[in-house]
Each structure stands twice: as structure tokens, then as C-alpha cells.
Specification:
The chain is α/β, with parallel strands linked by helices. The protein has one domain: 3-Layer(aba) Sandwich (Rossmann fold), CATH 3.40.50.200. It is 24% helix and 17% strand. It contains eleven helices and 16 strands. Strands 4-7-3-8-9-10-11 form a seven-stranded parallel sheet, with helices on both faces. It is globular and about 50 Å long. It starts with a strand and ends with a strand.
Length: 403
């Protein structure tokens, strides 16, 4: 089975690699631009984290900051010594086994960014500097299942660990994960479900582990179905801007559950600088952090109950209550925590869909792209819903460059 790697940068085009079996297909869109140095306030990073206010995190933190909850970040590597993450990152599991090594530039950019959104705790006096995550007292369990865009192995390797995502989901579910964040996916025209991945998701859900995935960055490229977001039971996150408007790049599909911030998001980088970027990757990480808060406050809730809570308490619901672009609306973890107080944990089961690994969604008809996509090779290599890094912010300075 062939896998096509696509990276949208000025000087980089895709490289083709060959997957062993059940290829993990993810589509990366990435570009970086530098700006001239300017003067910024010492608290400039925190001040630009508009998403925390938009999600009413201060209200949620009056109840919990996620202590006792472990969020598995299935991604690239995660930098354990970043000042915003020290003490919050557990020993990692590498399901890939080749490519860049820990400490290399191409080891942990995307994974570190997602970990910071979920469980960054800042640094400096009173933790007033750097990135603050939505669940700053949660733990991150890194599981490396994809390669960074800058990893030379993507162009040189002749084979990959094609089943890494499915194996990673099962491993995380068996090693203490309460939530699994999947800021990745294949939303190419050839995207199709992988039985092993589907089974792994259902395995995690049966063990009480909530699974969150980014809906896809295909809003301007045909809105193709993205996996793993489309697997049953997954909480699929779409992206909105600071005004609550759907981001133009965010995929519109029937599986959209809720929306979260995904535009102008400040992220931490292994180089200890800070970037602004966009993507449903970020939205997925915010939703995973919100799930961590809910589980910390109400540990007995099932994944199905948590998904329902997020949908029922979402703000700025679309006309009619739901649509494919924003799901049921913007997540409000404080409201979900409050509403959960009226629930009792139940042994709810994931929706059954017979012997098939994946059935058609509510869309009345399949598009020609979807039909051919089921038979075509998977596309992509890293972070198909990867956030695109744009503006670098570093301590009180800004710089501009182009990659």
C-alpha cells in the first residue's frame, strides 16, 4: 500500500514512502514566517492566549485543574524539559522506532505544541510566563506514532510502522490513559477507515478512555472525511476563531461533535520559543484538556456521557442546534462540569454498528471522491490536521523568517 506525503511549504513537496500494513495516513500543512524584532510586554505570551478566556477556564479551574488525569498525546515526540511542561510529562513510548532522535530539532515540535495546549503550566514567578494549558495539572503520556515534517526519515525511509496508530491507542489505553488526544488524521481524497484503528478506538472506549480527534483541515479542499475523527465514539473537534466563527480550513462533516479554538493559537516549541498557529489539531487538544477537567471532577463518567455533556453544554450553538461545521457549538468545560454533577455514572456502550468496521454517516449520498478514496492509497505523513506555525514570539521579542 502506498502512502503519499504532502507538505505545503514554499520549497518542499511530498515524498512517497511505502507502508507495511494498515498505513497511518496523515496530511501535513506547514509554513513558518518570521517578523522583525519588536518590543513586547513580559506577559505578552499569556495575554495572547485568548482561547483560555473564550472557554471560561477560570470558572472551570475553581473546581479542578485536571489533577489525577493522564492525557495520552499520540503524535510526534514531546519535549520533556520544556519549562512549561516540566514535571507534567510521563515516560514516552515510541511506536515508530526510527527517524529523528530525542533532542533533534525534528523530534517533538507538533507533539510539544499539543502537550502545551493540554497541560502547560507556564513558568517564571508565579508561573506567569509562557503557555498555560487548559488542564495544567494533568499529566501527558507521549506516544510517538508519526514523524515530524522536518524528519529526514520521511524522505529516506523505505518502510514505516504502518500500524503505529492502532498499536499506540491500545498501548495508551493499557498504560493509564484517561483521555487519548489524536491531533492527526488523513483527510485526503483517498482517505478510508482502517479496521485495526477502528478496533483500537473501540477497545479504548470500552476501557473507559475518552478519545478525541481533530475533524480535519480540509474545509477549503473538499471537506473529505478524516480518520480517526470519523470512527464511532470519537469526539471530533472542529476549529473556530476568537469570534466563534468556523475557521475556513476546518472540515465540515457529519461526525463533528463540538468546536474549540483553532486560529491564532499560541504554542510552545522545543526551541523554547513561542509560535502562533492554526489548525484543528489545536482544537482537538483543547477539547482533550476539557475532557481531562471533566474526568478529574467526575471520574466515574463514561466516554459516551462525557461526549454528551460537551454537546449538551456547548455555547453558541448553530441554528437548529447542530451543523457539520461546528457540531453542537463551542465547548464550555465549566458548564459541562456543573451539568455532570446531576449525572450518575452509567455503563453506557459505544454505538454499535454490526459487523462492519465503519458504516456510512448521515450524509444522504457519497461523493465520487469518497468512493474512490476508499480504494485509493492513503495520503500524508504527519499531522494532517497539523497546526500551521506562523508567527514566532520569544520572551519579549518577535522575529520574522520564512521556511
Amino acid at each position: 500500500m502506498k502512502r503519499r506525503t504532502q507538505a505545503h511549504t514554499r520549497a518542499h513537496t511530498g515524498a512517497r514512502t511505502r507502508a507495511r500494513t494498515g498505513a497511518l495516513g496523515v496530511l501535513l500543512a506547514a509554513s513558518v514566517a518570521l517578523v522583525p524584532p519588536t518590543v513586547a510586554h513580559a506577559d505578552g505570551i499569556r495575554a495572547q492566549q485568548w482561547a483560555l478566556d473564550a472557554m471560561h477556564t477560570q470558572q472551570a479551574w475553581q473546581t479542578t485543574k485536571g489533577k489525577g488525569i493522564t492525557v495520552a498525546v499520540l503524535d510526534t515526540g514531546v519535549e520533556t524539559d520544556h519549562p512549561d511542561l516540566t514535571g507534567n510529562v510521563l515516560p514516552a513510548k515510541d511506536m515508530i522506532g526510527f527517524g529523528a532522535k530525542k533532542g533533534d530539532r525534528a523530534w517533538a515540535r507538533h507533539g510539544t505544541a499539543m502537550a502545551g495546549i493540554i497541560a502547560g503550566h507556564g513558568h517564571g514567578p508565579g508561573d506567569s510566563e509562557g503557555v498555560m494549558g487548559i488542564a495544567p495539572q494533568a499529566k501527558i503520556l507521549p506516544v510517538r506514532v508519526i514523524l515530524e515534517d522536518g524528519d529526514s526519515a520521511r524522505a529516506k525511509a523505505r518502510s514505516t510502522r504502518g500500524n503505529a496508530l492502532a498499536e499506540g491507542i491500545r498501548w495508551a489505553a493499557d498504560h493509564g490513559a484517561d483521555v487519548i488526544n489524536l491531533s492527526l488524521g488523513d483527510d485526503s481524497a483517498s482517505a478510508h477507515p482502517e479496521p485495526s484503528e477502528d478496533e483500537a478506538v473501540q477497545y479504548a472506549l470500552r476501557k473507559g478512555v475518552a478519545v478525541v480527534a481533530s475533524a480535519g483541515n480540509g474545509g477549503e479542499k473538499g471537506d473529505h472525511v478524516s480518520y480517526p475523527a470519523a470512527y464511532p465514539g470519537v469526539i471530533a473537534a472542529t476549529a473556530v476563531d476568537r469570534f466563534g466563527t468556523r475557521a475556513s480550513f476546518s472540515t465540515r462533516r457529519w461526525y463533528a461533535a463540538v468546536s474549540a479554538p483553532g486560529v491564532d493559537i499560541v504554542i510552545a516549541d522545543p526551541d523554547h520559543k513561542y509560535y502562533e498557529g492554526w489548525g484543528t489539531s489545536a482544537a482537538s487538544a483543547f477539547v482533550s484538556g476539557a475532557v481531562a477537567l471533566i474526568k478529574a471532577a467526575h471520574p466515574g463518567l463514561t466516554p459516551a456521557q462525557i461526549k454528551q455533556l460537551l454537546e449538551d453544554t456547548a455555547r453558541n450553538a448553530p441554528a437548529g442546534g447542530r451543523d457539520d461545521s461546528r457540531g453542537f457549538g463551542m465547548i464550555d468545560p465549566a458548564a459541562a462540569i456543573k451539568a455532570a454533577g446531576h449525572l450518575k455514572p452509567e455503563g453506557l456502550q459505544v454505538a454499535s454498528y454490526g459487523e462492519k468496521y465503519f458504516g456510512p454517516g448521515p450524509d444522504a449520498a457519497k461523493s465520487a471522491d469518497d468512493t474512490t478514496g476508499w480504494a485509493a492509497p492513503l495520503a500524508g505523513s504527519l499531522g494532517g490536521v497539523l497546526l500551521v506555525m506562523a508567527v514566532v514570539l520569544w520572551r519579549g521579542r518577535r522575529t520574522r523568517y520564512e521556511d
